From TrEMBL:
<comment type="similarity">
    <text>Belongs to the bacterial solute-binding protein 2 family.</text>
</comment>
<dbReference type="InterPro" id="IPR028082">
    <property type="entry name" value="Peripla_BP_I"/>
</dbReference>
<dbReference type="InterPro" id="IPR025997">
    <property type="entry name" value="SBP_2_dom"/>
</dbReference>
<feature type="compositionally biased region" description="Low complexity">
    <location>
        <begin position="31"/>
        <end position="47"/>
    </location>
</feature>
<dbReference type="Pfam" id="PF13407">
    <property type="entry name" value="Peripla_BP_4"/>
</dbReference>
<protein>
    <submittedName>
        <fullName>Sugar ABC transporter substrate-binding protein</fullName>
    </submittedName>
</protein>
<feature type="domain" description="Periplasmic binding protein">
    <location>
        <begin position="58"/>
        <end position="316"/>
    </location>
</feature>
<feature type="region of interest" description="Disordered">
    <location>
        <begin position="31"/>
        <end position="50"/>
    </location>
</feature>
<dbReference type="GO" id="GO:0030246">
    <property type="term" value="F:carbohydrate binding"/>
</dbReference>
<dbReference type="GO" id="GO:0030313">
    <property type="term" value="C:cell envelope"/>
</dbReference>
<keyword id="KW-0732">Signal</keyword>
<dbReference type="InterPro" id="IPR006311">
    <property type="entry name" value="TAT_signal"/>
</dbReference>
Length: 352
């Protein structure tokens, strides 16, 4: 189980559920799938579940906003809670200190909130306090980084790391095939190589490229930071005099990657980003540089977690499903954002 890395979580398998207001993506991960132009909606329209119901207090705890993605997690949660007159949103101070987060969650348990949404700094280390909440009858909606004990959460909701890699690999593989490129030089700039989430992204990428007869030429991690993104990209650009495509796992570190590319005055290749930041979408929309697409790992999942917490606390299910209960696990798919659909996805992007 990985330790805290300043943001982002783990891949966990689960059913991909298209549910009312759940902001899931629209594309398939099959190689032949083309990016859709239909954007997911930020909120569902007029279902019975949206009508005011029993007043509920939803506690919220997440790491400190040391990345644009984490900042967007907190904003999406708060904004979604404001949509309901029957929800009292009770966030605690964000922190990157494990013990402080445990203490903060304990304060929400003591306050007897009706539901808890937790994005833990470390799922393993906060497992026991989440279990304490569940044992106290408070349903826990585990966001992104998973608790290892399934008895520690009622529902998990998060993104698809393997699917990100598949989406990026399909876009790059198809683009190169359409151009008639053989034996392409494909570079991969990871987040942190030792993390399972990164390994899942890389495996999805390799698996998708393989279907086109391609493979990764060189791979290096950039620690999810702008500074490392610049340094790693500079090294790779110096080492490879000709490049056909780059996949950068993370749009936050992508700021540094793109700075290095600009400094090197290189433009013979195209690049795909990861996570779906607003600045990346604007670059893609402008179509004035090497960045041609990004694949989503959307912080809108926090808004979906608030919606799920409200439904669970009120004893409701998802209106689009036959079942009476909210699912135990929900994995959001990874969408491919290109020039054609960037404008529609921009409102859901986060600022890096």
């Amino acid at each position: 189980m990985e330790k805290r890395v300043g943001r982002r979580g783990f891949l966990v398998s689960g059913a991909v559920v298209g549910a009312g207001a759940l902001v899931s993506a629209c594309t398939s991960n099959e190689p032949a799938a083309a990016p859709t132009t239909a954007a997911p909606q930020a909120a569902s329209a007029g279902t019975g579940n949206d009508e005011p119901g029993t007043k509920v207090v939803i506690g919220f705890s997440a790491p400190a906003a040391d990345h644009g993605w984490i900042a967007a997690i907190a904003k999406n949660a708060a904004d979604q809670a404001k949509q309901y007159s029957d929800v009292e949103f009770k966030p605690v101070e964000p922190t990157n200190d494990i013990n402080q987060q445990i203490t903060a969650v304990e304060s929400l348990i003591a306050a007897k909130v009706n539901a808890l949404v937790i994005l833990p700094n470390d799922g393993e280390q906060l497992n026991q306090v989440a279990r304490k909440a569940m044992d106290a009858g408070i349903p826990v909606i585990n966001l992104d980084r998973v608790f290892p004990d399934k008895l520690s959460y009622r529902t998990w909701v998060g993104g698809d790391n393997y699917g990100m890699g598949v989406a990026a690999g399909n876009y790059i593989g198809k683009t190169l095939k359409d151009k008639g490129v053989s034996n392409p030089v494909i570079l991969e700039i990871q987040g942190i190589a030792t993390l399972p989430l990164t390994q899942d992204r890389s495996k999805g990428f390799a698996d998708a490229l393989k279907t086109y007869g391609f493979s990764v030429t060189a791979q290096q991690d950039a620690k999810f930071t702008v500074e490392s993104g610049t340094q790693v990209a500079s090294n790779l650009l110096q080492a490879h005099k000709k490049i056909d495509a780059i996949w950068n796992h993370d749009d936050d570190q992508g700021i540094g990657v793109l700075a290095a590319i600009k400094e090197a005055n290189r433009s013979e290749f195209f690049m795909v980003g990861g996570a779906g930041s607003a600045n990346a979408m604007r670059d893609i929309q402008a179509d004035s540089g090497v960045l041609k697409a990004t694949v989503t790992y959307s912080p809108t999942m926090a808004g979906s977690a608030i919606k799920l917490a409200r439904l669970i606390a009120q004893g409701k299910g998802l209106s689009d499903l036959v079942e009476q209960q909210v699912p135990q696990s929900i994995t959001l798919a990874s969408e491919t954002i290109t020039k054609e659909n960037a404008a529609k996805y921009l409102p859901l992007g986060f600022e890096s």
